[in-house]
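TL;DR need structure tokens for one chain.
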Amino acid sequence: MKALKTILLVALLGAGTAGLSGCTSAQKGAAGGGLAGGVIGSVVGNNWGMTSTGPATGAAVGASSGVAVGGLAGDAYDQVTRADVERELDNLRAELEAREAELAELRGAEPDPEALAELEEARSRLADLEGRLAEAEAAADSEALSRTEAENELADLMAEINQLRGQLDQKEEQNEVLQAEVDRLQEEIEALLEQIDAKEDLLADLEGEVDILRASLTGKESALEGLEQELQDLNVQLEETSRGLTMTIVDSLLFEPGEAVLTGEGRELIGEIADILNERFPGREFIVEGHTDNQPIVHSGWNSNWELGAARALTILHELIDFHSIEPHNLSAQSLGEFHPTATNSTPEGRRQNRRAVIVILPEELPVQRETLASAQD
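>> reply
TL;DR here they are.
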């Protein structure tokens, strides 16, 4: 009996799978289960006093049951879903119950306690295998769940990566647009800097010219102050106007009343004025103007104040040309008569001021043009 137990245990623990490498779990389980079932069946047939063929019949029945049980148990390990495993286990239990019923019928009596113990041991082993199968199944389910979670997480990461790549592409396009704008602005800035440099150079030149003009103006102002004082000593009024500098001489210093011939003192005064013109304004252009009051001509024989003013202006012009070396092309004369007074003609003092000769010193850049002179008188 101990030898039979040993054989039974070896069969249940996988002895029947020896030499079956490369076979499936179902094939290995069928081989091992057939061997174990045959041994159990032979023992039961022998111990329970069946017919003369009892041991053989028990072995055949046990082998058949063992093949079914072992094959189903081995095949269960190859299934990947819980439903398949549970279905195979239900089939296995049903087959086992059927075989137990067949054994009960064959025995026809109470089974041998030792055989029952061996059968119970086989059941315990089967329960252990079922537990291990459940654990393996749970581990497989956990692994599948972890793999699914990992795949979902990977899918989320890939979606996020694709989104970030899209954003990066968009940012790169925006960066290219901004860089083009920066380049354009940089070119404009460089052009503006060049213009600024040019303007600064021009400003420096203008400032230099302004400094020169200021120095010249300062010198001219100083000279003008000296000239003004010098002319005041000669009773000649110096004034700066839009037409240029003017020297105003009252007629009593130059002519007798109603006359157009210079007195001795008048010729002397014109000589001193000519010296000033030659010294201080060489090459400049001059206009000699004759002005009168509004009193009508009575005793002098002139047709009007126009003729008197013109005659006096021409007298001064010839004096400057003939005796004081003033170039003729720099001189002109005109009569303005009584129509440009500087004071009222209603008083003797006012009329005295209006009777005058004026020498206009034109600016250097302005040629003698009668149209310009005429408009300047307006």
